[in-house]
Structures are given as C-alpha cells and as structure tokens.
## 1
Amino acid sequence: MLYYFLGSLHLILFCWAFYNILYFGVKPSKSLSWILITLFFPFLGVLCFVIFGINRRKIKFFELKETKKRKDFIKKTIKSQKNLNTNFFDTNKQKKISQLIYSTTNATVEENNEVTLLKNGKETFEALFAALKSAEKFIHLQYFILEEGQILNKIIKLLEEKRKQNVEIRILYDSIGSFHLKKKTKQKLKNIGVELYPETPFKYGSFIFSLNFRNHRKIAIIDNKIGFTGGVNISDEYITENTDLGIWQDAHLQIKGSGVHSIHKSFLNDFYYASYKNLTNTKKYTSTFATKGDTKLQVVASGPDYNQSVVMQQYLSFINLAEKSICVLNPYFVPTFSILEAFKIAALSGIAVTLLLPKKTDSKIATYSMYSYFESLLEAGVQIYLRDDFSHSKVIFIDDEIASVGSTNFDCRSFEHNYELNVILYDDKITAEIRQEFDERKNKATQIHLETFNKRSIKQKTLERLCRFLSPLL
C-alpha cells in the first residue's frame, strides 16, 4: 500500500514539475535535464528543481515575498523619464549599450565623474580606509564576503571611532558568502551601534526557495561623496598568501560624482529588502555632489527581481557591438551558449578576442568546467592566456573605448541567480589604463594553443565534461 502511495505521489510531483518545466523553461537542453532528474530521482529530483531550477521570473507562485517586496519598492523609488539623453556620445555603440541598460534597468548615464582604477587589494583597502576616516555623516557597506581577519578588524576599529563621532553606519552581508562570520563579531558591530543585516538569511519556511539566490554585490558609500564597487570582498586573501593561490588580484573602482548616487540607490533598495527601513525619502542619503571629473558612467544592477537577464544582455551587447577588439578578465569563465557563440562569431569575423583567465581557481569544478570551453573557442580564433596568479577581477572592455568593471562572472549563477552590480565606463582614458594593466598581466601569462591543448589526457577531458555538467550548480 505504501509503495503505491509513494509511487502515486511521485507521479503527481513529476507531472507538476513537467508542466512548469515545459511552460516556463528557458533553454531546451536545461529543461530536458530537469525532466530527467525529476523523473528518475523521486522526491529528491523535485526538491532540487524547486531550489535550483524554478524560473521565478515566470512562475509567480514561486516568487519570493522578499523579491516581490524588492520589486515593488524599486517601482516606487524609480523616477521614470521618457527618453535617455545620448547626444553627448561619440559613437553609435555607446548609444546602443546605454539605451539597452536604460530600457532594462531605468539607469541613466551619469556625467562628470572622477573615477580611479584600483588595481589590487592593497590599493583598494588603502583608498577605502582613507574614505572611511573622512566620513562625517554616514557609512554604508555591502559585501558578499565579510571574512574574519586583519582587514575586517581594521575596518571595525575605524567604524568604532566613527560611531563616537556620531557617524551613522549600516552594513549588509550575504548569509552564504559570509557564512563563517562569527557571532561575536556580529555582536561587536551591533554593540558599537552599527545597523547590521544579512541578505536572504536562513529563515524557516523560505530558505529552501531563497538558498539559490545570493547577493554578490560589493559596495561602499561614504556621505554620498565617495563610492566604491568592483570585485573586492572584505578578506585577507587580498593581502596574504593563505592558500596555494597566493595573494588574490582584483579590480575595483573609486568613484566621485553623480555616479555615487546611482550605486547608492542599489544599496538603499537592498537595505529596505533586508531591514524594511526606507531611507530613500531622506535628502541626506539621496543628495548628489558634483566633481570636475569627465567620465561618463552607467550603473548596471541585476538580479532575479528584474524581468530581463540584465548582465548577460550587457555582456552580449559588448561582444556584438565590438568592431576591433574584445578583452575579458574574469575568474570564472563558464559561459552560456549565447555568450559562447557570440565570442566565436566575433573572432571568426576578424575581431581580436582575448581572454585572460586564471590557470587555477578556488573551485576545481569551476576550473575544469572553464577548460571544457577552450577547444571550440581556440578553433574559432579566440586567444586565451592563463595566469599563474589568481585574478578575481570581473572586467570586459571593447575597442579601447568602453569598459565594464564589477561583480559579475561569466557564468549562469551571475547571469540568472545572483544580485550583481557592474559599472560601465564610457571613457577611453580610463579604458586605456585598464588596457595597460591587462597587457602587463597578459605578457606574464601563458598563451594556450590548440595543438598543445588537444594533447591533454582522457582523464582531463572526462573531468572537464563532468564539471561542465555540474557548472549550473556552482
């Protein structure tokens, strides 16, 4: 009797999953995989589908109430305008990219910004510490990873001094990325007066549905005058050699000007999501400060709460609109089919496509999966260089005139599941600086050639294919 009951229950659950996969699945290959998983793995397969496979952009029943709250709040705080001003752009590709981002996120292009490229953790933390010391009104921090160590201890000490000066401090952290953050550290921050909140915390009744959606943004805002964003987390891995990967390398941005407010809007939305506190109606948090900078930029915020896969579309527009060159610096290169084909088409069209990637990463699955794409890319003429050190930078620039620096990797997780933030820089001067840093790193790296790469062992090729199959779960 129990056998028939369980069998019937499995059939009902499978039919439900099959219906949702059939009507709301995006990619046929991925949909077929989920159908097989839910069919041949009773109960566990359906549970995995609910956690990792549900298309929450389409299936309203499974839209998290927190995500709905975020969407509703964003709608209330957005001040719509009929048209995006692109008259100050020099090229058609700049106009097209900016219009795409505006259409999907309502983010306008901010002029007259002063942008400083921070090339590694040392430069980033020195600039961040200096900015924290200068705070007079408030400090807002948001990081995927807050990790115990020297850097965090120094930040806490600075924050304690600032609280004595009545500076308001608010911190957001991701509950998965900062899983090892100690309770006593959290309590210490709260005791000194910091408003500390986790993003998508483990709550009974909702964690199964929110487990797969992480906030991967890295943001620091000081008095709305200085802003930081990019790929650097709060971790000692950027200053000490704790693992065989050595000291992590990363790219970050310091911004002064109207662009700071655009980044801050993302933080304020996330803060409301985490705390139910609305700070967007207070002038202190929404005012902008002019600078003498000449950089135009656009902030690209993305996540499951947007109707479009914003950052994937951003990267595709970069690749498709490039006329001379495409350069990518990224730690986790596990592209979607559309991104992969776009790179191959660009290279076959005569555009110089160069990928600068780490030889090994902090995830063996990610490393093997990344290698599985090399053969087809090399056949199309893409140049691939592997660095001996570990670069955590997330950078793409085209034609030496438009660059993107942010938190987004080239993988399904960043495109579909994570909350991410990039900054598009419409500035040939800072892009030239990024190009110089890119070339210096590339000249020290090892170029992969097709003939040599094809000689790798059967074991290596098998591991690559297996890890590629698991890559959506990274």
## 2
Amino acid sequence: MLSGMYSAAAGMAAQQQRMDAAANDLANVNTTGYKHVRVAFRDLAYAPAGFGGTQDVLIGGGTAATSLGRSLDQGALKVTGQPLDVALRGAGFIAVRGADGQPALTRDGALRTDDQGRIVTGGGLLLDPPITVPAGSTTQDVHVAEDGTVNVGGTVIGALRLLTVPNPSALAGGPDNTFLATAASGAAGTAPRTTTVTQGALEGSNVDLGAAMVNMMEAQRGFELASKAITYQDQMAEIANGIRR
C-alpha cells in the first residue's frame, strides 16, 4: 500500500523540479544570451512485487526529473548600435573570469568598461584575457571585428577569446549569466571559425515564452494529480485498517 504513496510522492517531486526549471526560464526570458533548461523524466527502479511467490510482476518506484542540459538554439539578435554590445552567431562562448578568478563562459555580450578602462561584462567580470581601452579613448572609438579582434583607432588592443566545449548542453549554469565546464561537457577549446561576432547587437534569450507557460501549467496539473493520488492512497489505507479491526 505504501508503494503507491512513494510513487506519487516521487511524481510530485519530479513535477516540482519541472516547475522550477520553467519558472527559471520565465524569469530569464529577457536575459541576454540566456539558454533555456531542458527537463525530461525517467523511471525509477522496478522491483518484484512478490505476490504469490512469483517474480514476474514488477512494481515501479515512480518517476524522477532529469536535466537534459540547456538548449543551444540561437537567440534572436537585437540591434542596439552600442559599440561594446556584441553578439555571437554560431556555436561558442566568450571567455571570461568569474568573480572567484576561475574560467567561465558567457553568451552575454552586453559589455562595458570599468573605472580602470578594462572591458567587463554587465556583471563586472573581466574578459579572459583582459582587454583595456587606452586612456583618452572612448567606447565610440572601439571596433570589434567578426573574428573578435578589438582595435581602437586602427591599433589592435586585444581580442575576444571565443571558446566551445565538446558537449555544450552539459555545461553548468554559473553566476552572473555564465556557464561552467563540467566533466560531462568536456574541456573548453577554440570555437569553430564559422562563429562570428556582430558588434552593436545583443543576442536575446532563446526561451519560448508560450512553451515555457505551457510547461509550467502542465507541471502544475501533474503535481495536483500526484497529490490527489496520495490522498486516495491514504483513504484506501484507512479503509483497510477499518476492515482489519
């Protein structure tokens, strides 16, 4: 009898994870370079029921949510005309240094300069390697080529380091709109030559607002059904206990 409750509780937990993922996507629908999370379900372990001494009847343990990583579909490009706004077309990420100094990746090209003239992300993270705009120059003097080369007044001052990983969908989400390499994603390496940089534009989130809303509503309905299953299991247990007495 309790196995039914366990299965229903597992279903509630899975639907809660699905709702959390959908809520996170909705919260980042306007976040530059954001990639939405893909969630699927898997069966939990099956075990012999043990009815009548047979091992042929199996009872499932319910379901669990599992992350399939992030969708890497290209987001729509929005032209801003700002010289430090850059968008990537194709596979790859801009290499940055996290707040802890560790390597990180981002598709958020809303760049700016800090009080030392260094080009940083909107969250204040330094590019890797760092690029500094010369004193006396303004951001309007900055030109970013399609290959990521940055020059001011015809003088090259650095280049955006464009990287990718063997399995980008397995990247972990990091702070400040970054991604972190994992064992599943593989180590970062140079992005393909087909990846280009567009200056004066930003890549929007690839979240489909309608699909995210549908996912959330489906998860809510699934959560409600699983909770009702627990209620029914409790009522059946109450009846069984009454018969025993």
## 3
Amino acid sequence: MIDENFRNQIYTWMDAIQRTAPLVHSITNYVTVNDCANVLLAIGARPVMSHDPREAAEITRGSQALELNLGATEYLDAMFLSGQAAREKGIPRVIDPVGISGSTFRREALHRMLSELQPTAIRGNYSEIHALLAGTDTGTGVDAVVDAAHPALSRDALAQGMQNYLRTLAFPMILVASGREDIVASRDALCFVRNGSPRMSRVTGTGCMATELLAAFLAVASGEAAFHAAVVATAFMGIAGEIAEETAPRGSGSYHIALIDALSTMTAEDIAGRISVGEA
C-alpha cells in the first residue's frame, strides 16, 4: 500500500494543510477542548470551538470541516444545526462517538446523526466502534476496554464487521477504530495502522486529538483520496506517540507535552519514513 503515489499524497496533504490552514469547527467536550485546539494549531490548521446553537451553523458555514464529539451531549442541538449546515455545504462531517459503549442516550444520538447528517467518517476506540456495529452496550466509561470486556473480539473480526456495516449504508463513510492496531475501513478498502505507543492511553484526550487530525486531513482530501487521507491522519497520531515515547521522561505530564511537540514539528518526511500499515 505504501507505494510512491501514496508517499506523494502525504507530501501533498501536509503542504495543503500548512498552506491553506483549514478551519475546523469542533463541538467537543470540556475535558479535551484545549488539546483539540492545540493539535489543530500544531499541524497548521485552525480551530474554532462554538457550542451555542444561535451561531453554530453560521460558524460551520465558514469552516472547511466539522468535528462532533459525543462527550459533549449538552451541545446536541448545536451539533445537529452545524451538521446540517456542513452537509448542505458539502464539507467533511467527522464524529467521535465518545462513550457510546456505555450510554443508550449517546448511541441513539449517533444513530440520528447517521440518518440526518450522513457523516464522512466516524472515529472511536474498539469498544465504541463495536457498540456502533452491535447497537448495544459493550462496556462502561469512555476507555478502550474491549480487550478486557470482550476478549473474543479480534482485530480481524471487528475489521470485517466494520466493512459489512459500511456496505449496509446508503452513503459512503469511513470508519476508524483505535486499539492494539488501528483499523481504517471503507466499503471497498481496509488496512491496519501499527504506529503508536502504550503511553498514549495514559494521557486524556489522545483519541479526541486523533479525531481532530482526521477532520483536518479530510478537509484537504476528498473522493477516493479520503480513505488514504484517513490512514495518514491515523498514522500521524501514532507516530507522534512514538516520537514522544522516545523523547519524554517517564511521567505522563512530560509525555503530554512531548506529544504536542511531536505533532507540531513532524514533517511529511517523518510520516513517510515511519508510517507502518498493513492490508487485510
């Protein structure tokens, strides 16, 4: 999969983000909003965080991508108004299904989003994506607990389930599941991203940050290129985790800072040289 054309696309997308500075409207949760803004700034994109339904759709109409985080259920009205504006404008709509593995309310909100907003992509952890496919609880909280709660759920079984699910939809969509190996799936393509560090799970918000990266990359890539852009965005976060692992002391605080440092200094050459993916 990592051929010369794919490597050239990495350079193209990195250049496009830094040259055009796409504005990403994020309606995200208060736990990670600062990190979400910083990760977009780190790669050269621009964040705007508007949660008020009186202005959210207008802000979206001036943006190049929309990211919706179900950890912010108090802003659902704004999410749907922004989502409709994004769909009308034809810009990417990226959803992070935080906590749907333990909340019927959030799963129902996500299903309504699927019907009304036709998302471009959904990115969550293994538990959350499994909950989307199964339509039921798969754990509690917001952590990626699928290994403990569902030891029989293998990477390959989840990946196949993701593709089967995507083929039932009336519109094209990309699914990304983060776990031991990240899974990126469309109706017709499937790959596994092997970049990352175990220390990423000890810092709150790395999943939310990864969703922001996905929205930024999809803002500069569309059509058939969107799948590969999702792969690169997923690898980008994992590679940043690896670089932070190499440069930070053992503590979580310094690792957090090193993660933002890595995101802000990483080049297209770094991604092309370190990306590790495999096809199904």
## 4
Amino acid sequence: MLFALLCGLPAGAQEDAPTLGDDENGGNFLFIPGIGKIPLPPGARGYGPGNPQDPQDSLAPRRLGPKAANPRPEPPKSPEERQAQELARLFDRMRDADDERESQSAGAAILHRWSRSGSDTVALLAARALAAEVAGAPSLARALLDYIVALSPNWPEGFVRRARVMASEGDVASALADLETAARLEPKRFDALEALGALSEKAGDKKRALGAYRKALEIEPRNESVHKNEERLRIEVEGRDI
C-alpha cells in the first residue's frame, strides 16, 4: 500500500525524500512530503538518505572482495624427488625401529633402491659383474666394475661393489679407498660404513674402525652386531670408564 501511495505522489513531491522521525510517545513515523506522517510498527526501521543503514546490521549488503583465485595444482614430482621421499621415510623407519628385525627390513629396502643405477648400460654391466663374482671370477668382476665406476663416478653402489671384490682379493687398501669414496658420495651409506669399520679393524686401524662404526650407528641404531663392535673397540681404544 505504501508503494502505491509513493507511486501516486505528485511529481514535485517525489523529488523530496521521505524522512524518519520520532513522536512524543517514543514511536517512529515516516514522513512523506505531500502525504504526512505514517506511523511505523514497533521495532520497524526505515533506511534512506535521512536514516542511513546501520553498518553493523547483519542484513546489510556487503561488498564482496575479488573472487579468490583457485590455487595452482602442484607440479608432478620427478622420479628423483619421489625416490628421495621414499628413502627419507625408510631412513626414519630404520632410525625409529622398535627392534632389529624392523630395522633390517627398512635397510634392505634402502639397499634395493640404492642398487638402481638409472642407466641400462650400467645395470647390464653390474649384473654381469655380480654373476662373475658369484661364479668365483673376481678378476673379471673387478674389470667390469672398473668400467662401471668410470661410466658412473657418482654412483656409490659401484664403489661399494668394487670394494667387496677388492677385499676378497686381499687388496684391503684399495677396498678402503673405495668405501671412503662411497661414504663421501652418500654419507648415509651405512653398509659402506660397516664394511669400512670391519676392514679398518682387520688392517689394525682400530681408531678409524671405531669412528666408522659410530657413524653407522647414527643411521641404524638398532644394529646389534655394530653395537657390539663399537663397544668392544671403544674399550680397546678409549679404555673403560672409571
């Protein structure tokens, strides 16, 4: 009805905006030029130039900000990144293992991943070198491993395998050098550190062996045999605690 009244206003009256007011009894009214006061129901509120809308009103229209841009999907991880994540999880599992069996399981999985060269040529040579080693032909195995190390000088596995063959031939000095190289290329090569400790001890360098065992235990603290070796050498090298 109010809309009908407004629509029926004279043109001059429509130019004057309606206003709100309070009467002497505390009520509200709407004053429309040309019509007069129109009482408003209790609690009713009007909005307009004379009574701007309360900004705290929950029904007040809100200005929406720019639409949030959709987050960009993460690019797919490379094979190297995926392998690094897998190895990190396995190292955590080995470090936090409840017993030696769980630690060995994680260690076997790590060694399996380290055995992948990423090269078909190197993989073929490595398979043939292993076959020669198992067949009791260390000279052939060593010759093949020399090629492998030359082709992939940054692959620690090649040095570990060649060190094993060298040690079987009695070339302890060369085996130690290869194990040191493997541990330098990959500081977490616990297998290289264990072998380094055993060969150093065999060569009479107990201090060097003790250091290698301790580094290995930092990576795989559940290895009981390395624990025993470290404890035995610690007493021999550093003496018993008083």
